[in-house]
């Protein structure tokens, strides 16, 4: 047996040792079923949520296969089928932008056949931004080579011009405005210029998910804002969102940005930190289960509730997630997603049980 004096010499107190031993025993004896959780053996790190039926899947496959043959009509039909569900329409436009990065011959044919198409023009503008960003990369500015940064900056004005042209062809569509917001961040727009662009987006789609995520990036400290401005923007989105909207999840992405920049794994635990998270939890409870963004947002919510030591609020979210643990929050550290997810839900369950004794 190792003497406690060895631990004392290492700066580890007897009380700390006893606490660690107790926690270890509790975890070893932990039975997930007693807390409404699935067994550890059923945890699935391959998916964030259950498989779902996508009503647009067949059209998506046709668009992909058609584009690879150099055909554009399937892509046009795929976007048009989204109607004025602007979040879904943007999601489909993004798919086409990704396809065009591989080969844009089909897009050129679409543009030539229908120069009046706002969808084709939006895909082209988004593609221009994607290509510029591919050269820059996702690193912080000081880690990007000057040559790549210069090329990036030269490409963006044309992309912004293309986005404005797309907005003229499709004046009701917020899609071109999402492209503008993305380009504006890199073009170093000032706060007033950016706010006017964002107002253009909101006029068309006040709760647009992708548009708000792009705006959040503008207001964060690593771009043109600060922690205060970023959180102010996220809280305003949280307060403005109607029931059933995923928009409150923007606040979770603000927490992600803060954690990534500062490296802090723990959060403050006072009312100022807790109240917005509880508001997000209430809001996400109204989102339809069919929304494909919901599982990922639930994972972020569970992760940040645990960071904030809000175990009573976190436990129901872990129950809703069930066996699915294949999401980004559980891949951050040295642990695999199963271990990280299981440790977080176990901590939440045990803390809630202890509080109830």
What does this structure look like?
- By secondary structure, the protein is an all-alpha fold.
- The protein has 17 helices and no strands.
- α8 runs antiparallel to α9, α11 runs antiparallel to α12 and α12 (227-240) runs antiparallel to α13.
- Residues 1-9 have low confidence and may be disordered.
Mean pLDDT: 91
Assembly status: single chain
Main structural class: mainly alpha
Per DSSP, what share of the residues sits in E-state strands of 2 or more residues? under 5%
Helix content: 55-70%
Q: Cα distance, first to last residue?
A: 33 Å
Radius of gyration: 24 Å
Helix count equals 17
User: Would you identify the regions where 5 or more consecutive residues have pLDDT less than 50?
Assistant: 1-9
Count all strands and give the number.
0
| Shape designation | globular
Pattern of helices and strands: HHHHHHHHHHHHHHHHH
What characterizes the major β-sheet?
none
């Amino acid at each position: 047996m190792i003497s406690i004096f060895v631990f004392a010499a290492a700066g580890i107190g007897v009380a700390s040792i006893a606490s660690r031993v107790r926690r270890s025993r509790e975890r070893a004896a932990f039975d997930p079923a007693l807390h409404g959780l699935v067994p550890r053996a059923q945890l699935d790190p391959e998916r964030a949520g259950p498989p779902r039926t996508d009503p647009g899947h067949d059209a998506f496959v046709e668009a992909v296969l058609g584009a690879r043959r150099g055909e554009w009509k399937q892509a046009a039909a795929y976007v048009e089928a989204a109607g004025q569900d602007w979040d879904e329409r943007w999601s489909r436009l993004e798919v086409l932008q990704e396809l065009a990065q591989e080969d844009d011959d089909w897009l050129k044919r679409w543009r030539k056949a229908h120069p009046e198409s706002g969808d084709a023009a939006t895909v082209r503008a988004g593609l221009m931004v994607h290509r510029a960003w591919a050269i820059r990369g996702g690193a912080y500015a000081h880690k990007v080579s000057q040559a790549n940064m210069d090329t990036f900056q030269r490409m963006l004005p044309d992309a912004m011009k293309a986005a404005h042209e797309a907005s003229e062809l499709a004046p009701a569509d917020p899609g071109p405005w999402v492209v503008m917001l993305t380009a504006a961040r890199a073009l170093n727009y000032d706060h007033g210029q950016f706010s006017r662009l964002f107002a253009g987006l909101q006029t068309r789609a006040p709760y647009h998910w992708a548009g708000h995520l792009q705006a959040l990036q503008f207001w964060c400290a690593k771009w043109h804002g600060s922690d205060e401005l970023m959180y102010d923007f996220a809280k305003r989105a949280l307060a403005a969102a109607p029931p059933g909207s995923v928009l409150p999840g923007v606040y979770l992405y603000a927490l992600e940005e803060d954690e990534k920049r500062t490296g802090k794994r723990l959060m403050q635990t006072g009312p100022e930190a807790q109240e917005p998270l509880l508001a997000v939890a209430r809001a996400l409870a109204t989102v339809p289960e069919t929304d494909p963004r919901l599982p990922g947002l639930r994972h972020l919510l569970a992760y940040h509730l645990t960071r904030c030591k809000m175990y009573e609020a976190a436990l129901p979210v872990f129950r809703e997630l069930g066996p699915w643990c294949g999401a980004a929050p559980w891949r951050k550290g040295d642990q695999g997603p199963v271990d990280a997810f299981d440790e977080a839900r176990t901590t939440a369950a045990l803390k809630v049980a202890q509080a109830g004794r």
